[in-house]
Amino acid sequence: MDWMYTAAGLGVGFIVGLTGVGGGALMTPLLVLFFGIAPSVAVGTDLLYASITKLAGVWVHGRRGSVDWKITGLLALGSLPAALTTIVLLKAFAVNTSHFEAVITGTLGVALILTALALLFKERLRNFARRNGPAIKADGQEKWLKVATIATGAVLGVLVTISSIGAGALGAVALFFLYPKLSTVQIVGTDLAHAVPLTAVAGLGHFFLGTVDVALLLSLLLGSLPGIYLGSHLGTRVPDHVLRPVLAGMLLLIGGRLVW
């Protein structure tokens, strides 16, 4: 089955390179629904997979200066403790029980549906945020903006640790509302920079819980790295308005299947 995992990694990596999103949102449900991997193992393995595959993107954005490290730090201040706390709770409530597997599956489905909606209405949400979002330098708002950013990180930390989904599209939507004056490339770079330590910490937590399949992880990476490279080169030729609805439709169908 290893070659099938590698092929799956190639396909998902290609889509990520093509669209910039969809890694966790596609890989985890693919492992659960198609390969029959236990939800907890699929989530844990995908978290480490995501942290490794996104490193190159952070390096590129960092060199271009399109990462706001202050915002990244505030998000991490909320998300990393939340991820660690969630891991402790998973350990305390026995992550391998069938009851908790159902919780993971349900959370995964809801996260997929929210991600699909965020993709479908990305432009409208961004325009609305720029018209109505808070001003970073407004008097008396900067302190509350920091608190809101840390709280957003905490919510993402819990969601990502349980489902492996949320650090990408949902994190970007939150940043659009909190920091509407940031450019799109800064939103993407900052969101990506936050996703790497979050998925790494959550993934390592799952590793210590015993819910990471190392052989599966290596097989996925073997296919995904060249897939991301190929997708990134083709992505400039395929219109975003064509790709985004297709990906969102896939996520809605998969999310609906997991929830119902």
| Strand and helix order | HHHHHHHHHHHH
Strand percentage: under 5%
Overall domain count = 1
The number of helical runs is 12
Morphology call? globular
Sheet with most strands: none
- Tell me, rounded to a whole number, the average pLDDT: 81
Oligomer: single chain
Q: What proportion of the residues is helical, as a percent range?
A: over 70%
Tell me the radius of gyration. 17 Å
Count of beta strands: 0
Describe the secondary structure blueprint for this structure:
Blueprint: H1 2-19, H2 23-33, H3 39-53, H4 55-64, H5 69-92, H6 98-120, H7 122-132, H8 142-163, H9 169-178, H10 184-209, H11 214-235, H12 240-259
Helix pairs in contact: 1-2, 1-11, 2-3, 3-8, 3-10, 3-11, 4-10, 5-8, 5-10, 6-12, 7-9, 8-9, 9-10
Explain what the structure shows.
The protein is mainly α and 260 residues long. It has one domain. The chain is built from twelve helices and no strands. The chain has helices at 2-19, 23-33, 39-53, 55-64, 69-92, 98-120, 122-132, 142-163, 169-178, 184-209, 214-235, 240-259. The radius of gyration is 17 Å and the shape is globular. The protein starts with a helix and ends with a helix.
